[in-house]
Amino acid sequence: MKFHRNILDLDVAQESERIEEMIRETVLKRFKRRGVVIGVSGGIDSSTVLALAVRALGAKRVFALTMPEKESSGDSEQLAIELTKQYGVELIKEDLTPMLNAAGCYVGRDAAVRDLFPEYDPAKHGIKITLPGDLLEKSSLNVFSLVMIDKEGNEKSRLMPPKAFLEVVAASNFKQRSRMMTLFYHAERRNYAVIGTANKDEHMQGFFVKYGDGGVDLQPIQHLFKTQVFQLAAHVGVPQSIIDRIPTTDTYSAGSSQEEFFYRLPFDLMDPIWYGLENDIPAAEVAEAFDLTAQQVENVYRELRQKIKTTEYLRAVPAML
Amino acid sequence: MTSKDRIRAFIAENFQYDIELIKDDTALLESDIIDSTGVMELVFFLDEEFGVEAEPGDLVPENFNTLNGMERFLESKK
Fold first, then answer.
1. Structural domains in chain B?
2. Are residues B37 and A162, on separate chains, in Cβ contact within 8 Å?
3. What is the pLDDT of residues A133-155, one digit of tens each?
4. Nearest CB neighbour to A139, from listed B37, B43, B60
């Protein structure tokens, strides 16, 4: 079959049924749990998984949590309320700020930020981490920059030395890991499983925290590209306000789109190109479908290969003899 | 010790790689020698060792993939 730009179009009804069956089989029969606990962020992935879980198990066997902390974006909770109300799912809120304070998440991170920006004050500045954005135009290396933004919107940016980068990431990862602990607490007290919300882009490119959002019992949409999650979301009736929202990390105080933080390309371009890479389609053929040059597609191929290879550690199960 | 030899010694020590196998034109990024965190370490090694601070526009594979590329990059910053 010749490559074309809509190559990732799904038969959404069939795919939805396949996933629902997988959820039922895994949760009820294989794991012998009575339902699922899900963390909802107001994003499209968790919303779609919640909808699929309700279709698979019924709303009474789905329990949702919103887990904000003091730096979370305010609209996440409102969208979670709208979502769970629509699907008839019970929702509770767990504020993770006290747990994160106790763990030293903010203090450790802020100290690392001050190594780069001594004037940094969390009350006056937001921060975010970004990668170079021009992936199509040139193959730049994945060296992260720390961006500090004041209340007037003035930005300062500096390349992150490895020590500061590792410290900021390690401290920030407390957020995902505290969410995982909280989800398992609620799952175990109900004899439920924790259902994950990672898509293929996140899983294969390593855009998740090991034993954080990656620490779940089942991953029903992990085989789907993000663009396919959008298709499925529309099919299962996810609210348009959630579908239209720009995917964010909801990890750094200044707010950060997933594209600027990590992916460096819009999903509707990256995903079909990735399909081309996986299926050994020559770059020139993919390029033709998108009015790109073969070199631009080669840049994306190289970036994807590199990210998949260098994040293998995140996906690895514990090594043993 | 030439700049290439100093970088070679750093790579061998930091990434625990056989120094004999790091040739001037070995593709460090495309092989399994240096990963993404390793790139950061290399960029900041050049800063500390040679006082050359990379700008975002300098962070391209041509400048960091091989010892030859790094030497050219250091020369261009003089």
1. 3-76 (1.10.1200.10)
2. yes
3. 666 766 778 888 899 999 898 99
4. B60
A34 with A220: CB under 8 angstroms?
no
pLDDT band of A255, cuts 50, 70, 90: low
For residue A305, give the chain B residue with the closest CA. B30
β-bridge pairing A155-159 and A145-150: antiparallel
- Number of domains present in the structure of chain A: 2
B interface with A, Cβ–Cβ below 8 Å: 29, 32, 35-37, 39-41, 43-44, 54, 56, 59-61, 64
**Where residue B78 falls among pLDDT bands split at 50, 70, 90?**
confident
Asked if residue A5 belongs to a domain, the reply is: no
A-chain CB neighbours of B60 within 8 Å are: 138-141
Closest Cα to residue A245, out of A263, A228, A260, A258? A258
Contact between residue A189 and residue A33 where contact means Cβ atoms under 8 Å apart: no
A291 shares a domain with A216: yes
Q: Beta-strand (E) ranges in A178-257?
A: 193-194
B10 vs chain A: nearest CA distance in angstroms?
Answer: 15
Please give the residue of chain A at the shortest CA–CA distance from B55.
A159
Q: Are residues A54 and A89 in the same domain?
A: yes
Strand extents, DSSP E, A77-120:
90-93
- A91 has which bridge partners? A64
pLDDT at B29: 85
A98 Cβ neighbours under 8 A, 6+ residues apart: none
- Give B36 or A219, the one with higher predicted confidence: A219
Integer CA distances (angstroms), A319 to A177, A313, A315, in order: 21, 10, 11
The reply to whether A229 and A289 lie within a common domain is: yes
pLDDT tens-digit profile of A72-123?
Answer: 888 889 999 999 999 999 999 999 999 999 999 999 999 999 999 999 999 9
Domain containing A111 equals 102-166
Q: Quick check: B59 and A145 CB within 8 A? A: no
- Give chain A positions within 8 Å (CB) of B48: none
- By C-alpha distance, the chain B residue nearest A206 is B36
CB nearest A141 (choices: B32, B41, B64) = B64
Instruction: Look at residue B17 and tell me whether its pLDDT is greater than 80.
Output: yes
